[in-house]
Every structure is written in C-alpha cells, then in structure tokens.
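Below sits my pick:
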Amino acid sequence: MRLPPQLARAVAKRRGEFLAGRLCARRALARLGIDSADIAIGPDREPLWPAGAIASISHAGDARSASPAPIRT
C-alpha cells in the first residue's frame, strides 16, 4: 500500500493512522467480497469507496477500525 501524494509531507503519526485505517478498510471490504485494492482520497479528503460499497474509517488513540457495508440496488 502506498501513501498518496497528499500525505508526502505529513508527520509519521498521521501517515501511520492513514495506512492503518486503509488497511482495516481493505480487510473489512475483502470479507464482504469487495475488491478494494486502492481506496483513493476525494476532493474533500474523504475516502472514495469501490463500486458497490460504503464504509467509514475511524481512529482514536491507538485504535483503528473500518465499518463497511454493501450497497444493494
């Protein structure tokens, strides 16, 4: 997993939070059978979820979590 250019100058703590959150999200989406090779960053710094999914990433202190759900149409 690579850091996006937006985080090139971020402090190590922020880079770690970002990578840990994205890793949690990737693993959680995989459990739903949704491929999430890359979760991009949107114009307002929001995660851009893969087609067919919606999710949330959270981090506080040393804890990281991601809660995904499939979108049913």
